[in-house]
Design goal:
59% of the residues lie in helices and 9% in strands. The protein has helices at 3-23, 38-51, 94-112, 121-127, 138-146, 156-162, 212-224, 247-264, 278-284, 309-316, 319-353, 356-362, 374-395, 403-445, 450-471, 476-516, 519-531, 539-559, 561-566, and strands at 56-63, 69-75, 80-85, 115-116, 119-120, 128-133, 229-235, 238-240, 267-268, 290-296. It is elongated, with a radius of gyration of 42 Å.
């Protein structure tokens, strides 16, 4: 690189740092300029969560091989997600400092509604949630930073053996069981080579995803479904990005890699075919963009000195925001396409659903057409099934992408609902007609008893039900036909037979009064009975009533002749 380009890059970094410092004035919670232990990590996560409620949230995604919690931290409120993690490798804990500092600075900028290096933080984090796992390997980091004291004494000899006999663990890279966590992922795992047994570095493990830390990451990624991933490592100031992408995916990832290189000043690795790493897996299996960013000049088999951190931060301060920005674009494009696809499917079926209108409105021109055909019921059932299918498809879309398909489905539902209203009205009408016939048959036969009264009450209730259902029918014309066919005849029957039943009930009351010896009340009710209106619509009913009255008068005369004579 020429002297001019070096000077230009230095100026860009310093100017970017100035812009960043100008945009965030809130007091920092995270101090990245220190050895960042698991204890400091948890304390800072708790402080961040408390300081930014609703914006920052922590989650335990699993435990390490020695039972330490592995924490994820979400930052943002968007449905779109991206994933950034650090400290897959123990001696690379400077990446925990970096990711925690990102959370701190981004949250402060969100709260103060300020930009960072030109990025509108509030807008980005309202669209996208950045999920961080700042320390994938808490056992390994603890061993590298503090040695054996935080591990069971019974395991010390095994750990020393994995470190080739040394009790200096500054070079330690693996988890504390001697498995290299970034050689645990499936792509090309069988061909990675390396040590055949647990070691301080490069042992692939007995099988893919055997380590609990790896399992936790894989399970977590499956849950959050990120659009894009950044795997932070620490050696070389380079960016790995190629792993078997082809065609449009290659072009897309090359574009992203180029921008990441421009932001950081790091070189792109021209070829990479190792496999086994998280980014290889995410790109190869999830088919989404993933980048491994090495943040420091190579320092050998030890951790990056803290004196390098200021430059690392200046180079990476906006990487999380760029990732969130591009992740949302991917999310938006994918879900817009999915939303449009569902909408089109709904609109296509709506043409079929519209045929329901023939059954509940268009073809209903007379009372004789008020019926439910098998074709109508079949199309209704088919439409209802299709609506449920599309509702499930819509539910799979993020909330912000459901408006168009829901609007399209509203039309389909209107045909379904109008059809259901017709079906319910015809069913209520048919039920009314059935019970009204039973009541009329009683009247014609002159049958007056408790069953007749019960049936009369049923007619009254079913008239109310039928009227309620008919009012829900979409067509006023069809409503009028239904009223004429079902409600009007039943209402007339109810009125006509109601006169007869009023006299019948009075006669029953007189029979009870006779049994009690209340002769004066019987006499009063006979007078009342003779004043009641009689329609004489049902000859046999009139005969039944006359017979009942005659029996009462005869019994009254027999029991109290003077009352009979008086009457």
């Amino acid at each position: 690189m020429s002297t001019f380009r070096l000077l230009l890059l230095s100026f860009i970094i310093l100017f970017g740092t100035f812009l960043f410092s100008e945009s965030t004035s809130a007091q920092s919670i995270v101090n990245p300029n220190q050895t960042y232990s698991t204890t400091k990590l948890l304390n800072d996560i708790k402080k961040l969560e408390k300081s930014y409620p609703g914006l920052v949230k922590k989650k335990v995604i699993g435990k390490s091989e020695y039972g330490r919690n592995i924490y994820a931290v979400s930052l943002g409120k968007g449905e779109s997600t991206v994933f950034i993690h650090g400290s897959h490798h123990a001696r690379e804990w400077i990446t925990t400092n970096l990711t925690m500092n990102m959370i701190d600075k981004y949250a402060a900028a969100y709260k103060s509604n300020t930009n960072i290096n030109g990025y509108n933080v509030k807008k980005l984090l309202n669209n996208t949630t950045i999920w961080f796992v700042p320390m994938v390997n808490p056992d390994g980091v603890t061993l590298q930073q503090s040695g054996l004291k935080n591990f069971p004494a019974k395991d010390h000899a095994k750990i020393i053996k994995m470190n080739a006999g040394s009790q200096n663990f500054k070079r330690w890279k693996a988890n504390a069981k001697g498995v290299d966590l970034n050689r645990q992922y499936s792509p090309n795992w069988n061909s990675l080579g390396g040590p055949k047994s647990p070691y301080y570095k490069n042992y692939n493990g007995p099988k893919v995803a055997s380590a609990s830390e790896t399992k936790a990451v894989l399970s977590f990624v499956d849950k959050i479904d990120p659009e894009m991933a950044i795997a932070y490592h620490s050696s070389g100031q380079i960016i790995f990005w190629k792993y078997q992408q082809t065609g449009s995916r290659y072009a897309q990832d090359a574009k992203y890699a180029g921008k990441l290189s421009t932001i950081t000043g790091y070189s792109l690795v021209k070829s990479k075919s190792f496999g086994g790493g998280f980014s290889d897996w995410f790109s190869n299996v999830e088919k989404k963009p993933a980048f491994t960013i090495e943040v420091s000049p190579a320092v050998g088999e030890t951790h990056v000195p803290l004196k390098n951190y200021a430059k690392i931060w200046s180079q990476n301060a906006s990487i999380g925001l760029y990732t969130a920005q591009e992740g949302f674009k991917l999310f938006d494009t994918r879900n817009t396409i999915a939303s449009d696809k569902v909408t089109k499917q709904i609109q296509t079926y709506t043409k079929t659903a519209s045929k329901l209108k023939n059954y509940y409105s268009t073809d209903i021109k007379s009372q004789s057409k008020l019926k439910v055909t098998s074709a109508h019921k079949s199309l209704y059932d088919k439409t209802n099934k299709e609506i449920k299918k599309q509702e499930k498809a819509i539910a799979k879309l993020p909330a912000g992408y459901r408006t168009k398909p829901n609007a399209a489905l509203k039309t389909t539902k209107s045909y379904r609902d109008n059809s259901l209203a017709y079906l319910n009205a015809i069913q209520a009408g048919d039920d009314l007609a059935k019970v009204n016939k039973k009541l009329t048959d009683y009247a014609i036969a002159g049958t007056l008893n408790n069953s007749t009264l019960t049936t009369y009450e049923k007619v009254s209730k079913k008239i109310t039900t039928a009227e309620s259902q008919i009012k829900k029918m979409e067509s006023n014309k069809v409503q009028k036909l239904a009223i004429a066919k079902y409600v009007a005849p039943a209402t007339k029957s109810k009125k006509d037979i109601g006169y007869e039943l009023a006299r019948y009930e009075l006669l029953v009351e007189m029979e009870e009064q006779l049994n009690k010896g209340d002769y004066d009340k019987v006499k009063e009710n006979i007078t009342k009975y003779e004043k009641l209106h009689s329609t004489y619509f049902y000859k046999k009913t009139e005969t039944t009533l006359a017979s009942m009255l005659q029996a009462i008068e005869d019994e009254l005369l027999l029991l109290k002749p003077e009352e009979g004579a008086a009457s």
